[in-house]
Amino acid sequence: DAGVIQSPRHEVTEMGQEVTLRCKPISGHDYLFWYRQTMMRGLELLIYFNNNVPIDDSGMPEDRFSAKMPNASFSTLKIQPSEPRDSAVYFCASSLEGPKNIQYFGAGTRLSVL
Amino acid sequence: AQTVTQSQPEMSVQEAETVTLSCTYDTSESDYYLFWYKQPPSRQMILVIRQEAYKQQNATENRFSVNFQKAAKSFSLKISDSQLGDAAMYFCAYRSARRAGSYQLTFGKGTKLSVIP
């Protein structure tokens, strides 16, 4: 398997623009997670899905952020409108059912909002 | 809520030597999992090692081993025979085993490891 695939690898945009980050989980995995990494806050969970259904979105910072998982092989994280403080690395991870199972991470998307 | 603390922002080790990275955590649960992830400059988060809290035996993966002290809530990572490719950020992470569906990872702030040739 190719692992978790995220696109784009880098995104540079201007404040106020819409940004869409994409993730393809490992085939067969039941869970998909979106994390954000910043110097100040470290790695923090934004939202996660189980069988395409959002389970916990309490980490989503505000209404400007939204995430969808229309099918088992694709998820998006959208920021509209984007702000400079959204600049971070966004990771997608997937895993099988069960807490002992490993979360496999994508390579992340580095977002810069100017 | 669980918290994970890595008290060493940066560490360095001479190539071929041994280094230990510290991690402590706070939880009221008795059943959980602990992980060490490595993040090299490429940004990819890579699992290094995993420990189940109900197992007393410390996990080992080749040159990587842990010292799991459940009563002290301590989970340190030992890297033996350090190699240049071990240079990376290392993150300690906690995951609850109790609550169904609550499989998120709680991460520490990380330790940056440098390997000196």
Describe what you observe in this structure:
The complex is a heterodimer of chains A (114) and B (117). Helix content of chain A is 0%, strand content 54%. With 114 residues, chain A is mainly β. In chain A, strands 2, 4, 5, 6, 9, 10 and 11 form a seven-stranded mixed beta sheet that branches. The mean pLDDT of chain A is 93. With 117 residues, chain B is mainly beta. In chain B, strands 2, 5, 6, 10, 11 and 12 form a six-stranded mixed beta sheet that branches. In chain B, a hairpin with a 4-residue loop joins strand 8 (64-69) and strand 9 (74-79). Chain B is globular, with a radius of gyration of 14 Å. Chain B starts with a strand and ends with a strand. The mean pLDDT of chain B is 93.
Q: In this structure, how is the largest beta sheet of chain B organized?
A: 6 strands, mixed
Report how far apart the termini of chain B are: 41 Å
Q: Tell me which protein chains meet in the greatest interface and how many residues each side has.
A: A-B, 25 and 25 residues
Structural class of the secondary elements of chain B? mainly beta
Classify the helix fraction of chain B into a percent range: under 10%
Number of helices of chain A: 0
H-E string of chain A? EEEEEEEEEEE
Give the beta-strand count of chain A. Answer: 11
Which structural class do the helices and strands of chain A define?
Answer: mainly beta
Question: Can you tell me the overall shape of chain B?
Answer: globular
What characterizes the major β-sheet of chain A?
7 strands, mixed
Radius of gyration of chain A: 13 Å
Determine the fraction of residues in helical runs of chain A and give it as a percent range: under 10%
What is Rg of chain B?
14 Å
